[in-house]
Amino acid sequence: MDFAAEESINSFLNLGKMSDNEETSDAENTTPSGSATLPLRPPCDRPSCKSSVCSRSYFVVVMVFFHVYIINVIALLFYVHYNSGQDDTSQSRDAPSSNQQRPEPRRPPSKPEFLRDGALTRIEGIRVGHVQKVSLVQNKVHEMRTLSLKPLLFEIPGFLSEDECRIVMQLAQLKGLMESQLMVQDGQEELAKELNLSPEEIFNLLDINQDGQLQLHEILTHSRVRDGIWLTPENLREIYTGLKADKDGNGLLSLEEFRLLSNDAFQRFLLQRGVKRSQLVRNSRHTWLYQGKGAHQVLQDIKARVTRLTRLPPTLVDLSEPLQVVRYEEGGHYHAHHDSGPVYPETACTHTRLAANTSTPFETSCRYITVLFYLNSVEGGGETAFPVADNRTYDEVSLIQNDVDLLDTRRNCDKSNLRVKPTKGTAVFWYNYLSDGRGWVGEQDEYALHGGCVVTHGTKWVANKWINIDPDYQRQARYQQLVSQQPDDEDDEGPTLNSDIQSSDIHQDL
């Protein structure tokens, strides 16, 4: 055994002895009462003190390293943040022309955008039968009664005086009236070729419920709109027989049966057989009377009265269609229709098509409001019928069921929900569109379906004032700007969409 090993053994034995002496000393220091007196600890030069010292030292070292680590992390975060800010600043200084001027590439708009500077006034109907006082002319108060809420429809008795009714009819006769509808419209075959539609595509367009068969009402709707001829289910069955179109005789056309017909097969058959005036969609004569500067004072007064009635900006009324005057002889009628059509993205309004700056094959008359004046009292018939006024729901397919056609004002006017009797001087007006909820024109109000019942005795004279507004605000604003730039309109109202008259006191509830 070498000297180092011997020293290690002796140290171990001495450590054991010292431990026994400590136990003895502890026992001797115990007082009789059982309490122990702590001995004075010598300086930590004994082997028994080494473990506690090492533990404290280890703890201190760990805590120092931990704090140093946290401080380094914080310093690193500050360094990264500071450097990234400097990099952004230096990059912006290095390339000011590319980054500062256009952070995101963006093309300038091709058309100027117009901000809405006002909302269209829309009169509240409150409830059916509600009466409001309306101040339209000086020293006179008219009563306006709500006739329906769907559509929003009002009646104003005495809107025109007897003299005004007489002058309007005389001006129309002086200018001359023309037929409201030609017997049969031509050019449908050319239009179909231009659109390049296949028989399958036309079939799908006509098949409203997409059941793979064309019902009578689907063919009737198409023929009335396209040809302007008011066919009844009986007429259609007669045409089927004459053209041998319905092979199985079930009253329905399949795609195979439809393929055998040309686009103008119905037209040619009707031309060969002959069409009566009573079979047209409308049977009347009409003319247009200008209401601008230089027009008869009565016509200008009517336009101003309409502006106060509707509470719309004068510019919108000025830029709308002229006054239409219509005469229905005995037997005259106008089957149920909408004054304005729905506007889709591919559809343009007739009055703003120039400002639309786009080409589209579809146009519709965007008539926000219709004001209808009765110029005489009719001896028999001639009512204005609203077939589905205030219905709970609207379903185009249900308008023709069981050979009862609610659109037919010659046969079924008595089945309409609402009929207005023509009385001289009375005006009725309604909204053809709903509100979009933001103060502008919204979707078409389908409940505004209306027609003129057949005149059974006498003659019927009416006048129509339509107020044209494009549901697309930008197109309407561009149209008004375009018109305002015309040199001959220097004294006309500007293209602002805000009303220049304070009309809050015009309408009062009774």
UniProtKB/TrEMBL annotation:
Residue spans crossing the bilayer: 58-82
Gene3D superfamilies: EF-hand, q2cbj1_9rhob like domain
Catalytic activity: L-prolyl-[hypoxia-inducible factor alpha subunit] + 2-oxoglutarate + O2 = trans-4-hydroxy-L-prolyl-[hypoxia-inducible factor alpha subunit] + succinate + CO2
Biased composition (Polar residues): 27-36, 496-510
Cofactor(s) in the UniProt record: L-ascorbate
Pfam families xref list: 2OG-FeII_Oxy_3, EF-hand_5
Main location: endoplasmic reticulum
One Gene Ontology cellular component annotation held by this UniProt entry: endoplasmic reticulum membrane
This enzyme's EC code(s): 1.14.11.29
Membrane topology: Single-pass type II membrane protein
Class of this enzyme: oxidoreductase
This protein's UniProt keywords: Calcium, Dioxygenase, Endoplasmic reticulum, Glycoprotein, Iron, Membrane, Metal-binding, Oxidoreductase, Repeat, Signal-anchor, Transmembrane, Transmembrane helix, Vitamin C
Subcellular location: Endoplasmic reticulum membrane
GO biological process per UniProt: glomerular basement membrane development; pronephric glomerulus development
InterPro entries named in the record: EF-hand-dom_pair, EF_Hand_1_Ca_BS, EF_hand_dom, Oxoglu/Fe-dep_dioxygenase_dom, P4HA-like, Pro_4_hyd_alph, Pro_4_hyd_alph_FE2OG_OXY
Chain segments carrying region Disordered: 14-44, 87-114, 482-510
GO terms for MF: calcium ion binding; hypoxia-inducible factor-proline dioxygenase activity; iron ion binding; L-ascorbic acid binding; procollagen-proline 4-dioxygenase activity
Residue ranges of domain Fe2OG dioxygenase in the record: 319-469
SUBUNIT field: Homodimer.
Function: Catalyzes the post-translational formation of 4-hydroxyproline in hypoxia-inducible factor (HIF) alpha proteins. Hydroxylates HIF1A at 'Pro-402' and 'Pro-564'. May function as a cellular oxygen sensor and, under normoxic conditions, may target HIF through the hydroxylation for proteasomal degradation via the von Hippel-Lindau ubiquitination complex.
Protein name: Transmembrane prolyl 4-hydroxylase
Organism (species): Cottoperca gobio (Frogmouth)
Gene giving rise to this polypeptide: p4htmb
